[in-house]
Design brief:
Helix content of chain A: 25-40%
Largest sheet of chain A: 8 strands, parallel, barrel
Structural class of chain A: alpha/beta
Shape of chain A: globular
GO cellular component, one term (chains A, B, C, D): cytoplasm
Strand content of chain A: 15-25%
Subcellular location (chains A, B, C, D): Cytoplasm
Domain DAHP synthetase I/KDSA (chains A, B, C, D): 8-268
Number of domains of chain A: 1
GO biological process, one term (chains A, B, C, D): keto-3-deoxy-D-manno-octulosonic acid biosynthetic process
CATH class of chain A: Alpha Beta
Main location (chains A, B, C, D): cytoplasm
Order of helices and strands of chain A: EEEHEHEHEHEHEEEHEEEHEEHH
Largest interface: A-D, 40 and 40 residues
CATH superfamily of chain A: Aldolase class I
Oligomer: homotetramer
Number of helices of chain A: 9
Chain lengths: 279, 279, 279, 279
């Protein structure tokens, strides 16, 4: 499938969706996008900038929610214009979808909302590529029905994204079988390497995270076989306004991407022997 | 707390929220409400009629979604007028809340939407009692933050409801510890005995269910200690338009309620020895 | 089925297996057995004293393992002689089974060893009643094969016991459906209310526990429908040499047993409506 | 660490433990060992032949258990002598350990028995390298205590092996974080790619399996970073006498090993950036 001008799929080099969890300021967005563009260009990795303007499902209302839609879209437009990269943001039930669609290149739906039929179909009706996150409460094959709903409204640019599955309380687990399993939908499969290490609700009024496992899971997902990697990154995660415990430090991103690129090349050269057994 | 004219809480007799999953027709709603009123009056169980007019998160768009809001609210009003019981329905992100609030006595929020801050607060702002379902992806104590958000807008009539927790793929499990744990919020705790036996996505394009475990889990929850029981029931579950595999047959409801009533009396007479250890 | 002179089963009053996790001293065993006999006689609950002489699977070798087999069996014999109650102990792969069988009334096999065919069959060959614990890694219906192995050697006095199922890391969960499900084997089903609240490995070199949930789960299990309850108790759990965090204080046992007895009477008078649906 | 004459560890090329689940016949063992030796030599992968002579924990007693210890050890000795490869077998509580240790090069302990202190220490006392499988009911960090017990008796040649963790009923899941986590013990970490796709008890009296995910999980584990891979293989899995549904076909092994070798080279050249964050 074509995505923002590059080919994506299980037989194409992996692409990266990355950026700070939330648009904390214009400066942060521009700087991060610029550094990410420079790094991914050097490594030959197609890149989409991701950032949110409103965190609608924070654990607590005392947490930072973002700069709001007007300021958020203005900054995303600026990132496109000044840095020259495609941008992605996530939308919610009360988002003015057409307004967001007029700015961004890719829309993303949150895991919690994956079963809301009207919402998923309304987002897909905007005509942009959509990255649909699998619910933490869903099996990989449950995405078949979600993809069917998305396609029903005529959108063929659907990506599906795994960000972990509920495992006991306040813990997620990433099932690498699920990545292969979701490839059966025909949609590009994306692995979200930073939300997968979240510990939802694990710190009372905020969520915890195990940042050290981000590169481990990202490598494993690439080797399992994916079309893309999603990764939130920040120049100073310890002081980030959202998801600090699970974002990856921007200044340590290069060695992670370098090994992912090398692994992706190897695994896609060899092909996926399991395809013959999966029907 | 006062709810629809009766006292509810861990030191009060349990109340019942029951009805068919979806309003299939006026006749079904009226008949079921009538029979449930007769039965619960005889057994001395406070009763609230539940039915949905729109199933917004069906597995597949080929499934029946309901009669729509106008017809749905008309029928719920008729149930109130003719049968004389309070009514509850569930609302969603795109529900006209004030319109629904002008008819029903209790509003209910779906498990999948428990983390949507705006939505939960908007529902709670209507000034009616609200039954908030715990997400299948949440720990019991994660409801502390949800209750805090609900109370923030001034609503003190909050109930919280357990309808099962993700356990592997396509399976839910009911943690009886969680019912005791959620009592710490001070909110009446309700156990949903029919969605707890659902097998979400377990039959491909629809969800399965293990109806035979409904009375087992309902008895266990009553003995663990709850303020209320939620139970979907239908005169002919095999031909129901939604959730058939997990609804309980209306004509077999009496023995279930009778034992629940007797167990509830016993457990509440004895008191809850764990309270002293839970701080 | 007959067990130590009383009738046990889903249509009989529940029996209690209780005692301190490990035989710390003769005095502790005699005193605890005496108090438990007095209490259960008063409440009309058939009682079997349980204690271990060797904890073969402690998390760490630095933990107390027990007084050894000779001293252990001498004390169990003394409990029988002086207090006049039947006794149960758990056996392991290297236990001299005949020696233990010459003293105790009931043998118990550990959850971790449930899949060891030779072991299970050797224990069952001793001709005593056996309480087989379900593995934490097993589904309730996996016990069908275990029971088949046990019966293959001619032992018809098999009880099966649920002590929790793995749920994420370092946590167990008790599925009340499983108790009903395991009744299909025809064996008396026992619920272990204290190991079910263990947090295995949860404190590094020892296991943690959530004692406050013992009465919650015990009540729920009785209401779900069981033949017996297993519960470890100690006069001073904070200073116990094993399983302190999950044992129930002996001096707070009476209110727990009193409500269990009352609930058990109620649920067994009403019968189990689910039986008709379970085939 | 040195193992059978080669260096193993996170900074060494991965080694392979492979063979048919059970020694069905001398011919099968010799043929399979020969083909595996030829293949691994060509690919430059250090190789240890694995096969069992007694399956002590089959789901049902009607299943094939093996040829017994005398015939089993004779055949393993013949594999060593004729094929010239080191051999591994698994031992159980009632295994004559010294007898087995006199033939094999590596001993392996089953996941179910990981918490049996005497057993683990007795095996480790034989002085051979030991591959200890993590219990399906254990967290990765629970292996710290197991390794401590093993080292207590003076054995420093301990490997630890992940073969999946309980996830709901009749399903295992492989947590790639766990492989990195277990590296903290300092022991070589092995990933068992075939038992990880087992569905224990999933077919009533036998276990099921999802063979198609073997290469997916093996690639993911290599990319996460391991010292070795364990994989059961058979020339004709459909007619194998044990574990057929999860063994990998011998004639399709080459492409799997080839991609594992290439991925392992890449990931170990790049190093493990997470090490700096894991303390």
């Amino acid at each position: 499938m074509q995505l923002c001008g590059f080919h994506v799929g299980i037989d194409q080099p992996f692409f990266l969706i990355a950026g700070p969890c939330v648009i904390e300021s214009e400066q942060l967005a521009i700087d991060t996008a610029g550094q990410l563009k420079e790094l991914t260009t050097r490594l030959g990795i197609p890149f989409i900038f991701k950032s949110s303007y409103d965190k609608a499902n924070r654990s607590s209302t005392a947490s930072f929610r973002g700069l709001g839609i007007d300021e958020g879209l203005r900054i995303l437009q600026k990132v496109k214009d000044e840095i020259g990269v495609p941008v992605l943001t996530d939308v919610h039930e009360d988002t003015p979808l057409a307004e967001v669609a007029s700015v961004v290149d890719v829309m993303q739906t949150p895991a919690f909302l994956v079963r809301q039929t009207n919402f998923i179909q309304n987002v897909c009706r905007q005509g942009l590529p959509v990255n649909i996150k699998k619910g933490q409460f869903q099996a990989p094959w449950d995405m078949d029905q979600v993809v069917a709903k998305a396609r029903e409204v005529g959108n063929e640019q659907i990506m599906i994204c795994d960000r972990g599955t509920s495992f006991g309380y306040n813990t997620l687990i990433s099932d690498m079988r699920g990545l292969a399993s979701m490839r059966r939908t025909g949609c590009p499969v994306v692995f979200d390497a930073t939300h997968s290490v979240q510990q939802p609700g694990g710190q009372g009024s905020t969520s915890g995270g195990q940042r050290e496992f981000v590169p481990v899971l990202a490598r494993a997902a690439i080797a399992a076989g994916v079309a893309g990697i999603f990764m939130e990154t920040h120049p100073d995660p310890a002081n980030a306004k959202s998801d600090g415990p699970n974002m990856w430090p921007l200044d340590q991103l290069e060695p992670v991407l370098a090994v992912l690129k090398a692994l992706d090349d190897v695994v896609k050269q060899h092909g996926f022997v399991e395809q013959g057994l999966m029907g």
